[in-house]
Amino acid sequence: MLRTILAISGKPGLYKLVSRGNRNLIVETLDSAHKRMPAFAADKIISLADIAMYTDAEEVPLPRVLKNIYDMQNGGKVELDYKKAGKEELADFMAKVLPNYDRDHVYPADMKKLIQWYNLLIENGITEFGEAAEETPEEA
């Protein structure tokens, strides 16, 4: 499911892939407006399924991190106000979600975006965070 949910660099929020055009993608905002618009190759588009977070040992796929939050929140939204939360509050939250996250490479802005994205997904009824079959380049 997260394969069709996209983040577009420089644009707030998340987008759902609706269709593929000849030289662009048609995306729809994941908010109450559900506004459709084209997204072009120059926009730097990435699927949530392709994002990972740094830990001390390895990179953890974002779907697994979202699943950890979902389990921790019992399927509800994160009540922490990410806009007003300080570094320590965000770090405490992240330590509960992913205890061995890399404190040097995961910044407060990343934590805020993670909470924002999670809440947006929950608001839109997207709760299937199961990872797709993991394929690593070494196995190919």
Verbal overview:
By secondary structure, this protein is an alpha+beta fold. It folds into two domains: 47 residues, SH3 type barrels; 73 residues, Arc Repressor Mutant, subunit A. Helix content is 27%, strand content 21%. It is built from three helices and seven strands, in the order βββββββααα. The strands form two sheets. Strands 4-3-2-1-5 form a five-stranded antiparallel beta sheet, with no helix packed on it. A two-stranded antiparallel sheet has the order 6-7. A hairpin with a 4-residue loop joins strand 6 and strand 7. The radius of gyration is 15 Å and the shape is globular.
Radius of gyration: 15 Å
Strands of the largest sheet, in order across it? Answer: 4-3-2-1-5
Please tell me the overall pLDDT: 89
User: What is the third-level CATH name, the topology of the largest domain?
Assistant: Arc Repressor Mutant, subunit A
**How far do the termini sit from each other?**
24 Å
Shape: globular
Question: Which H/E pattern describes the elements?
Answer: EEEEEEEHHH
Low-confidence stretches: 132-140
How many helices does DSSP assign?
3
- Class by alpha and beta content: alpha+beta
- Roughly what fraction of the amino acids lie in strands? 15-25%
Largest sheet: 5 strands, antiparallel
